[in-house]
Amino acid sequence: MGRSDCMILRMSALFAALFLLVTPVWAQSGDDSCDRSRWYCVDGLNTGLAESAGQLERETPRATLEALLHLARKDNWTAAAHLLDLTDLSEADQLRQGAELARQLDVVISRKAVIDWDRVPDRPDAIDERASTDRALAGEPRKSLLLWTIDLDGRPAAVRLSRVKPGDAPAVWLFSRQTVENIPALHARYGPGEFEEMLPDVLKKDAGFGFMWWELLGLPLLLIAAISMGRLTWRILSWVANRVERALVKDVVKSIRGPAATATATSVALLVGSSLFVFSGQISTILTPIAWLGLLASGLWLTVNGVEVVLDRLTNFEETDLTQRQEVHKRTMATRIAAARRAFVVAVTLVGGGIFLSQTNIFQNLGLTMLGTAGALTLVLGFAARRVLGNIMASLQIALNQSAKIGDRIVYNDYLCHVERINFTYVQLRDWDGTRLIVPVEEFVSTPFENWTMKEPAMLRIIKIKCAHDADVDKLRDAFDEIVQELDKDELGDLDNMKVRVADQDVFGKDVWFALPCADPNTSWDVACKAREKIMAAGARIAEEDGIEIFPEARPAEAA
Question: 474 partner at 20 to 30 Å CA-CA among 183, 388, 391, 521?
């Protein structure tokens, strides 16, 4: 064998090796030519259906939806069946059930879904051109698109479009296999009920904007019926409350009137709107969550009222004068109970709101539009409710730091009053003359005030009297000792703290301060007024007996 023959053999072996390596690659690429990351690959698509008379536009998600609406107006359900992925059905079932499934799907979508057309892409690859760059699928092609979520026997049933590629044919957008599987159950749950089927055909016609005539007429009647049933429940319970004799039963019945009326009204709306009649998606999307929110709110309201009744019966301070110095413990208890009530209401509201949001799918469906602006909405709501939230937190702050308790005697902005109530958003103060002063809680805690009852009730009341320069202070001191002996001993404090001092002087005379110890700040003002009256009388008597001036005489111009 020559040298050239050896070279030929070597080249043949090399080509053979390359052929063995390349052949599997060719085979693999030929067997899996479908790009499964861009669409769902199937061998055949709806082979059991008859050929459509016209060409259907199914290249984009929006085109598929528009085709369904167009064919639904013409009642051409045979052609509309080509918009469904019927792969899970046999060819015989596709031909027999396809048109009916398309009709049922149109009914379900029109009654339970609100399609946001601005969010439905009009591109074959379904790229969301409006998505922000921080989203995971921003700029990425999609092969599945969620249109809406519908509750089905306690589980969410998705209405989806899928991009399907049958063999070598172009990829098209169809309602997914999972959606097709759920169509019969969704139609049985949300399709026309027996009462609706009995309505005249004229009321079932389209009235515009996706509503039927019976909806435009029935919704106001439903609201009127729900409100009427709520009012009737309120009146019945009021009648019962007025005829029972036991105070506890009367309070319980009165406390359940509001929750029962709310629950009755929302139950009627929910029962009629979801069982007897099934409204369109534009109505049910709003009506159903509001009805469930009403039921939840009535239950929470009933819980709060029940706790209120129990606390009122256990801690009844209506007949107790909390301003008395011996009621320190009850003042503290009343303040803590009021704070516990407010904290309980806040907790119930937060828990109820969490339950409502977790049990309803409104934000799953409307989340694309609502939660997209959640930041701005939160800022707006927070700015609008900042004062209310601030007052609620301030009321809890008062209860925690005990700066003012119910029944405390305080001086607020030169008003001598006692704390009567500490509510969510305001503090109710009772002035010495019986008038009420309403102060926002946030303003109350941020304004300095004197608390005469804090720590110890005993206090010194200073009676300031202007006397002449020649006034005999020793005789005034003796007179003050006698006056104090005449006052009620129960209203006086430690008499060792009693003092008479010359505190200041000017061209008109000298300022004499009489320190009067008082046991109770709630009665100290009256005691000081009595003592001042007796001091003035004693000074006039001393001036007459000794022939000296006790009180200076000044012309009005000089006094001014």
Answer: 521
